[in-house]
Every structure is written in structure tokens, then in C-alpha cells.
Predict the 3D structure of the following.
Amino acid sequence: MPPTSKLSQGERAACAVVERVLGVRAEPWDVGGRQGAVDALLHYPDGRVGAFEHSILGRTDALELDARLSREEFEWPLPGDWWWTVTIGHVDELNHVRSIFDEIVLLCESHQVWCPDFLSPQVQDENRAVRWLLEESTSRLFGHPTVPARDGTAVRTAMVVPPGHGGAVDSELAGLGLALHEAFTSTNLRERLDKLLRHDADERHLFVPVHQTGLPYPVFDGLGFGTGLPPSPPPLPDGISHLWLAPNFSRRVVLWAPSGWQQHTLYE
């Protein structure tokens, strides 16, 4: 793939994975004003050509929150004496939480409580920012009194993260087929599949980075951090030959090809 590629960073990374696994050369194709073009063409040494599309699977609001926190490197300056962690419940709350963060941190530290929930009812009632955080927001702040904001020459920053997820784990990936069937009905993935099917090629590849909100948690955890492979083929339309699933934070990529499921560990 040439360095002048106009593909996005995610598309370039996906092409690099496919090049490494299959020994192909990825040629950026959705460039130069081409209308309805697939993202890339995959050129095999024997002359075969694959059409390639990349599309992220995840909730739009969660992807936007991740992108905005990433631009701030998931950290905010600390106004007080302790280290703090912040969980942003929804992207729509981000700006407001940021605007009241300093006030709430300093208020909690002045009352020697590590969480706004533990402020006295009177203090909670008198402070509009605290009332909003506790009564209307899904975001949360947690202080760490034993970890100083400044330790000698080291200056810490607050860690700001999206909400976590948890639950049982589908280690057998029995629920993946149904989850993918539902995902393939989404407008974005449906459009990508249709674009691939319109392209005349020997193979058609859909590469899907999977955000933790893109699949039910049990399936996502089993896919990203388990070792098993799915028990049945994915519910792909006829004509789609390869499905690449790249779960967020995982060290493996799971591939469906005509020969069956495979996994590839790429990030040692």
C-alpha cells in the first residue's frame, strides 16, 4: 500500500493486517473522487483480486465519546490535592461534566470525601452542580486521597474514561451468529455489504473493528479475550467471502474464510 494513500488511519491499519495475514498487496481504491468505490483492492501474487471494505461496529454515541476523550488523551488537569478518576456516562454529558469538574473536586476535598455521593445532604442540596451530577447525570467522579495530585516532580492528571461493561462471558461464542445477524441489518454495515456485492472481484472482504458496544457484552468479551472460535459460519450474504472481526483492546483478529474460522494474533 503506497504511503500516499488517502484512506483513513483505521482503513490503513486494517489493510496492513490483511496484507500480513494473506500476503496480498492492498491498493487504496476509494480515492480520487471515485463514486461508490470499495475502500481498497487486494492483489494476490497469482493475479486474483479481492474487494475490501472497512466499517466499525459500535454505538454511534459511544464511538463519538471515545473519539472526543481520545483527543484529550483521556485526561484532565487536577485542580486539587488528590488524584481523581472520571467516568463519562454519555457523550452528551461530557461538556457539562468538564465544566463542573474543578468545582466538585475542590468541594469534595474540602469536606474530605472521596465521592460526591458522600457529601452531606445539606451540601448536596445547596450545590447545583452536585445535584445535577447525582440526580440527572450517569457520569461519576471518584477521588483517591492516598494518591497525591503532585508527588515531587511528578504531576498527575485525572483519568477520564467511558463507562465500563460487565457480565457473564460467552466463551463458546454461541451468540455471535445472532448478534452478527442483527448487526448486519444496521444501515452502515448494510451499505458496506451492498457496495462489496456490486463490485466484480474474485473475493469480497468486510473488515469490522468491533467496539465494546457493537455486540452484547458476553459475546464481545468472548470474541476479544477468549481463545475459542465460533461454532458456525457467520450469517453473510451470498458473495461475501471473508469477514474479519477485530475486537477493541484485543490481541487477536478472528477471520471467516471459505476454509472456516481462523484467528490471528498480530500485536506481540
